[in-house]
Amino acid sequence: MATVLVALDGSEFAEQVLPFAEALAEGGAKLILVQAVLAVMPAQGAQPAERQQRVLVADEYLRRLERYFTGKGLAVERRVRYGSAPDQLIDAASELQADLIVMASHGRSGLERWVLGSVADRVVRSALCPVLVVRAVAPPLWTGDIPELSRVVIPLDGSPLAEAALLALSGWYGKLVREVGLVRVVDIDTEAIEAHDVVSLTEQAQAYLDVVARRLSARGLTVHTEVRAGDAGAEIAAYAAERRADYVLLSSHGRSGVSRWLLGSVAQRVVEHSPLPVLVVRQILDRQYAGERQPAVDTGARCFNCGRPYYGDLNDIAADARCLRCDYHLHACGNCVFHDTVRCTLDRSDANETIAGARCPKFSFRQAEPARPENRA
Is the pLDDT of residue 350 over 70? Predict the structure, then answer.
């Protein structure tokens, strides 16, 4: 069962995450309601009695919410932690091995304001799991039915790290998704790029989205694609609204690590322009085939078919792992250092088979990027 940490602070603003938490719980997740409390003037320190009182008030608040969820037959627990909100949320997510954090981008907590750039910003930057950031507004956007979380928009920029967002569709909450909108925003400087270059950029971007769309369609998803030009944050938000998406799913890195896709840039602008929640996937890479997470490290290994970098542990590749870009089987012999582009130097009888799961016991990933052959997978 997946674990979802729900960040609260006792305010109505922060409670705007609850419909989304409920939707995730109905999808099979266990909710852990977490509130961090701190003295009004933390620099002066809190007396034990004051600290205990704040903890009791927070616990009673979470208990009421807990009763609501248990009354609906949903799995839920509560935790009260003492300390600064971002530190406690990050630590709680790590200790509880949370699969997802759900939190508002605005709220009230004593003298603190939860705004993107403080609590939410720090949590997204530091948490090891994805974070669903719900933009809290007055009046609340969600006051009736529970969101289905079945329609999602995924912005891509052609980089492997931006494609990390696609891994989320292989995760437990991806099972709720039925319809995907893929959008690529072309950064065009009209003074520097001639008209024919604009057309070429757009065509290349569309061709890239079509490749990704075919792979997702093969999994039974309804996929739409669109290429746009202009400000990335505004265009992504506009496309998500047109598609009537439940949320936007994006990676917090892209362009091979350049800050263009860091929170504070595209992700933050999407939150600013769109009332929709934004699910930020931070450095979740190929080893999630096995349900694991690790930092982004370019090992030098490349997919034999399309050249996409592989960021996982080269000694621990899942037997059925496939390239996230072209779906080519990563254990095809072309990827192996024992394959000399003509045959297997170990005289392995099934050297040219690309059946998922076939694997040489002495397999070692080719480090240098080979020439790209025709797709044999």
Answer: no
- Higher local confidence (pLDDT), 362 or 7: 7
Residue with tokens 């705004």: 115
Q: How far is residue 301 from each of residues 204, 317, 335, 364, 366, measured CA to CA in Å?
A: 25, 12, 8, 10, 6
Could you tell me the pLDDT band of residue 210, with boundaries at 50, 70 and 90? very high
Q: Are the folds of 3-134 and 151-284 the same?
A: yes
Residue 290 has pLDDT above 70, yes or no: no
Q: Are 51 and 39 in contact (CB under 8 A)?
A: yes
- Secondary structure class of 203 (helix, strand, coil): helix
Would you kindly state where each structural domain of the chain is located, as residue ranges?
A: 3-134, 151-284, 295-377
Helix (H, G, I), strand (E, B) or coil at 133: strand
**Cβ-contact 24, 149 below 8 angstroms:** yes
Q: What pLDDT band is residue 187 in, cutting at 50, 70 and 90? A: confident
The whole-number pLDDT of residue 57 equals 92
207 C-beta neighbours (distance < 10 Å), count: 10
Expressed in angstroms, the distance from the first to the final Cα of the chain is 34
Tell me the backbone φ, ψ of residue 169, rounded to 5 degrees: -70, -15
Q: Which class in CATH covers the domain with range 3-134?
A: alpha beta
Per the prediction, the chain carries an average pLDDT of 76
CB 4 within 8 A of CB 30: yes
Distance CA 352, CA 113 (A): 59
Pick from 145, 170, 121: nearest CA to 282:
121
Report the predicted TM-score, pTM, of the whole model to 2 decimal places: 0.70
CA distances from 151 to 83, 154, 240 (A): 37, 10, 9
79: enclosing H helix or E strand: strand 76-82
* Residue entry with tokens 């959008």: 183
Confidence of residue 162 (pLDDT cuts 50, 70, 90): confident
Residue bearing tokens 């362009």:
255
CATH number for the 151-284 domain, one of 3.40.50.11420, 3.40.50.620, 3.20.20.80, 1.10.150.120? Answer: 3.40.50.620
